[in-house]
Amino acid sequence: MLGAIGGVLAIVFFVTAHELGHFLAAKAVGVKATEFFFGFGPRIWSFRRGETEYGIKAIPLGGYVRVVGMNPMEEVAEADLGRTYREQAFWKKSVVVLAGVTMNFLIAYLMFAGLLLANGVTQLSTTLSEVVATFPETGEPTPASTAGFEVGDKVVAVNGIPTPDWTAVGTELSSRPGEEVLVTVERGGRQLDIAATLATRDHLETGEPSGFLGVAPSVVRRDLGLWESLGTAGRQLGSSIDITFQVLGRIVQPGTLSELARVLVGDTDVPDEIRPVSPIGVGTIGSQVEEFGWGPFLFLLASVNVMLATLNVLPLYPLDGGHFAVALYEKISRRQVNVRVLIPVAAVVVTLVSFLGLVAIILDLVNPIDL
């Protein structure tokens, strides 16, 4: 239950932090922000400090900020002229519209860094954790069992080529299908050379013939210092952004959208790789946190934060990236965008996001995620 509540509150925090980024940026560059609320819908409680009204609204699913002049259809009071978003220089507009996604990316980065600093990283070592006795298909002995490899052997070279990590071991072995190799291992404090004739199997990713020995590496944990954690977190953030773009690219394909549309008529059998997840789903995952641990769950929440930021940075109006694209176009062309052109684009984007949100909620209610 604690994980479920924590997951939902984390998403609320991410959305609120996103809006806080816009709000603080607007204040910093002198753009007027008249409202900053937690939640949506009817106003429950508020107070005014200076020119801004702060408060709470009825639906506690994030935050809301009103920046004067950001809506191109908005009529601006004469007293606000000079401080509206639409009148600002390109760099000020950019700061305001990109501050939200920057806040989300920063939070995700700090979460990744904290997890790495606390938990370190797991990696495959060259020490063997398993020697496969036989091929399951035929029952014949594997090259490793025939040659006499043992659990605990540490592979240090293949055909005299040093293997400092398991990637090097795999590369050397897979590139020699059917060949005899000489594998140097450490066992009991001394080095042994073991000859083995590799089997040939299809590579799992490429399908090409690949050398197969029949051993598995052990997994070890390595602690990271502060600076290494920060650097690794940056690479993790970049990887998460790349994966999110790939997932979004697949989801918006016509075939995928058609498959997701069937959810609306009761077909909830959706592959995990294209399944959208709502806050309800994150809460469901959080309720299972005792089974897989807080570390993986916090990593998931950081990835959700990346997804929120990556979605918003897309150059589609009225997303943040869309506002930036409009500002960039106006900067380059030195003319304002026709608002009537933006309306159909905004309608499509809002419809698509609403559709995915509805599908996610239905799936999370009818077919809850079970890890």
Strand order of the largest sheet: 5-4-6-7
Overall mean pLDDT? 89
Strand content: 15-25%
The proportion of residues forming helix, as a percent range, comes to 40-55%
Return the string of H and E elements.
HEEHEHEEHEEEEEHHHHHHH
> What sort of overall outline do the alpha carbons produce when their principal axes are compared?
elongated
The main β sheet shows up as: 4 strands, antiparallel
Helical segment tally? 11
Total number of β-strand segments? Answer: 10
Contiguous runs where pLDDT drops below 50 for at least 5 residues:
none
Taking all Cα atoms into account, the compactness measure Rg is: 27 Å
Q: How many structural domains in the coordinates?
A: 2
- Which class of secondary structure composition applies to the elements? alpha+beta
Span between termini: 15 Å
Give an overview in words.
The chain is elongated, with a radius of gyration of 27 Å. The two termini are 15 Å apart. The strands form four sheets. A four-stranded antiparallel beta sheet has the order 5-4-6-7. Strands 1-2 form a two-stranded antiparallel sheet. It has a two-stranded antiparallel sheet with strand order 3-10. The protein contains eleven helices and ten strands. The chain folds into two domains: 2-118 and 275-366, no CATH class; 121-222, Pdz3 Domain. Strand 6 (180-187) and strand 7 (190-197) form a beta hairpin. The protein has helices at 2-29, 90-119, 143-147, 166-174, 226-251, 254-261, 279-286, 289-292, 294-313, 320-333, 339-366, and strands spanning 33-49, 52-67, 121-131, 154-158, 161-162, 180-187, 190-197, 199-202, 209-212, 215-222.
